[in-house]
Amino acid sequence: MVSFNEFSTVPSLLRNVVENIHKPEETFLIHKKKTTWEEISFKETLQKADSISAYFLEKGITKGDRLGLMIENSPEYVFFDQGIQQIGAINTSIYPTLSEYEVEYIINDSGIKAILIGNPFLLKKILKIANNCAELKYIIPAFEGYEKIAVPADLQAQIISYEVLLSKSVSAAEQQQINLRRREVLPSDVSSLIYTSGTTGTPKGVMLTHYNFVKNVEVCLQQIPVIDETETFLSFLPLSHVFERTATYHVCCAQGCKMAFAQSLELLAKNMGEVRPTVMSCVPRLLERIHDKAIKSGTAGGGTKAKIFTWALATGNDYRVKKEAGENPGLILGAKKAIAEKLVFSKIKEKTGGRLKFMLSGGAALPKNVGEFFGDLGIKVLEGFGLTETSPVMSVTEYHRQVYGTVGRVIPGIEVGIQNYDTKEILAIQTHENFNENFESEEGELIVRGHCVMKGYYNKPAETAEVIDRDKWFHTGDIARFYKGNLQITDRLKNMIVNAYGKNVYPTPVENIYLKSPKIEQLFLIGDKREFITAIIIPNREALQETFNLTDAFFQEKDDFIENAEIKEWFEKDIKKISNELAKFERIKNFKIKRNPFSMDEGEITPTMKVKRRIVEKKYADAINAMYEEGVEAES
């Protein structure tokens, strides 16, 4: 069983597993090496961690030193993290997709002394900036053939093979020193520096303590008590992000679950079928794609197959609604549901591996219709909410109680408030303990205080004071309310659009309504201080190609936007139809169709796939202004 106490730290979790839950020889990590899935035991993981600890102790790494990881999800990440954390060093993970400038800034701001590198492309990136990073002493490639990469003659840092660290033998004296250092790690010590994605400026290093992480895992397991030591998690979201780190990695460390690593996003569907996970964390976009593909496949060609599919979904919906209302579905509906399961639902579930107990969705709002779709299939999707600064979970859906369109119940031990962003009056405060499933509140800024709140921003006391007030409330910058006792996120405070007439438009819920169109992959709303709302639309490439018989060359043309009148009219039909669900001031009056998705390489989106509003509006200013000129002409 999981054993949490006031002395628990991140490195103590795995030790507890081998002492109280699993035998050391049992499987912990699973990864694919060439064509074969290989298993790594708890014992081997801890041995490799000890080798890394001994190596860095020899190099003089001390408690509080920052060591970097710029590597994809893999066993190598886990070995390194466990090895450095148990000697009191701080995990400073860097998104592999960040630019050279951003990587250099993070290395220097945090004072990283050594960094683990995952592939040749990342090593080349580091080699270009290494001499600009005064504190960087060791570069550690974790891949074969790194010796073939040209190294600057004047490189000041030392390159060391990861194999050298992993193969180091640990003497009895070194083991004693490692054990001593692990006991000296305190819950109040910083476990990790995670840099915010920088949608509004310079990235800030969020200091999260061992207590932040361990307590977050403890209360989440209380809220979702169905997770046990028999689970197999499939990890594909980046471990450099706090969501995957806590919801998958730390949960597996605490509960003794198996943790398998997906090869890539492109191979995720294949890997799900191979690994057959019981739990996985995901983002709404993945669920939307599964939803879209299932609908398309089920209704393609019409005829009997499409009718059966549509009937099955309607049956699943009726069954779910009755069950969630606490009613008995009855024998007839139960029989229909069993037929729908056999003919339709089981085939969709089999593509996920057929064993999923639930999926945990976070990182953005899940459209209500997508959540209901999975509920109709009998696939449970739990939604959670939090920020890097809240380590991260503030709320998560209870396993037995689903309220679609919300992000669940407040976790135990914290307070979540709704504050009027003009008067600063606190409109409502909810805790896990005072939960009322009928409670509803006004909308306002979401604030939180308690064990999940970060220690602060690294070396930035002024910025820390801006977000954590004198009463210890952390101001999230999100707009939220309580609905049926659950937390419901409306939008980001800084995303709010105020049109020329003073009307407030929250982009996220409006965008989600338009995303009901299968033609639209992504939508970016514009209209601050403008007379009406416009949008940049990212098309569903597959649907667009099939409808207009387009080749890949079409998407490689230089023009950022598609100006084809026939294609625009195709989108316009859905825009006009869906607009009827919105208030007049929220409706899109004009739009541009972007040829390709927003790009991380171009600095348009963050590593967590959030659009950088300021960057996008500046970059495409001419196209945006043209939409308003066209709109004015059309109305005149």
Automatic annotation (TrEMBL):
Keywords tagged on the record = ATP-binding, Ligase, Nucleotide-binding
The keyword Methyltransferase belongs to this UniProt entry's keyword annotation? no
The record's annotation in Gene3D superfamilies points to:
N-terminal domain of ligase-like
What is a single molecular function from GO for this protein? ATP binding
**AMP-dependent synthetase/ligase domain segment(s):** 23-458
Q: Which GO terms describe its cellular component?
A: membrane
Question: Origin, by domain of life?
Answer: Bacteria
Q: Which Pfam families match?
A: AMP-binding, AMP-binding_C_3
> What name does UniProt use for this protein?
Long-chain fatty acid--CoA ligase
